[in-house]
Specification:
This protein has 154 residues and is mostly helical. It folds into 2 domains: 2-122; 124-154. The protein contains 5 helices and no strands.
Length: 154
């Protein structure tokens, strides 16, 4: 009987810790969402579009809505990090016109991008390393083919 109680206690403690860990991850999500949206707002302020303030807020609200729909997705924090880091490059190349129709197109594009990012299958570290190795092998093969003197022979 003591082993049964000990096992039951361990199972309950493990379940409780799992619930607590899941709760702490969910409670950290609003802060991470705010960090991401703050970084997006900062980027927009550094290179402002000629849009009225209401349009800028609509744009940020669109992103917020798209990321909030996928809160239960795996690797959510990593996806927000990708959005946060990638937004600046995206924003720099955006043709920011004052026309409402062009703005609507940009808003639809960022919604599509964000929804797809939040739903996409992310590669594991092993899969990324495999792609890096394939790229390295292709690069070495191309260098050897086009410039054999540049690649040392083993």
């Amino acid at each position: 009987m003591p082993d049964y109680h000990r096992t039951l206690r361990n199972v309950l403690i493990t379940a409780l810790l799992t619930v607590i860990a899941a709760g702490s991850t969910k409670s950290a999500q609003p802060a991470l969402i705010e960090q991401t949206l703050g970084a997006i707002r900062d980027c927009m302020a550094r290179s402002p579009a000629p849009w009225p303030e209401e349009w800028r807020q609509e744009y940020v609200d669109t992103i917020c809505h798209a990321i909030s729909l996928q809160k239960d997705t795996t690797r959510y924090n990593e996806r927000l990090g990708i959005l946060r880091r990638g937004f600046e490059l995206y924003w720099q190349d955006l043709n920011k016109s004052i026309e409402r129709s062009v703005f609507e197109v940009h808003r639809a594009q960022i919604r599509w991008y964000t929804e797809n990012l939040m739903d996409a299958k992310l590669l594991s570290e092993d899969e990324r390393q495999k792609l890096r190795n394939q790229y390295k092998n292709l690069w070495e093969h191309a260098a050897m083919y086009y410039h054999p003197k540049l690649v040392p022979r083993l």
